[in-house]
Amino acid sequence: MAGEFTVELDDDFVAIAREVVDLGLTPDEWAGRESDDEFQTGRYVGGFDADENAFLFRAVMSDGTELWFDLTLSEMFAVADGRLRSVSAEPGDDAE
Predict the structure, then answer these.
(1) I want to staple 66 with a disulfide (CB 3.0 to 4.6 A). Which of 6, 15, 59, 92 is the partner?
(2) Among 77, 34, 39, which Cα is nearest to 58's?
């Protein structure tokens, strides 16, 4: 179920968000460079998904659980400047 878990966004993810902000791309420009693994830092792997018009990420938790979450471009700005520090997440397909 959606929102079942929460991922606390650590410094690694804040660095990803700052990289997104620093690139200064529009949603259309992000869509043109769509990639599901453009960002790979710490426990996070993800990138921009044009169909969702959002950044989709997988986080591997300390117990090995994979959690998935998405953030809009404006939410990435909120992470970069410290206004957003946690997100709701869903377990990966292989989790029961």
Answers:
(1) 92
(2) 39
User: CA 6 to CA 67: how far, in whole Å?
Assistant: 9
Q: Name 38's Cβ contacts closer than 8 Å, sequence gap at least 6.
A: 46, 47, 48
Residue 96: inside a domain: no
Q: Examine the pLDDT at 46 and tell me if it is beyond 80.
A: yes
Span 15-33, pLDDT tens digits = 999 999 999 999 999 999 9
Has residue 61 been placed in a domain?
yes
Domain that holds residue 29: 5-91
How far apart (Å, rounded) are the C-alpha atoms in residues 48 and 55?
A: 4
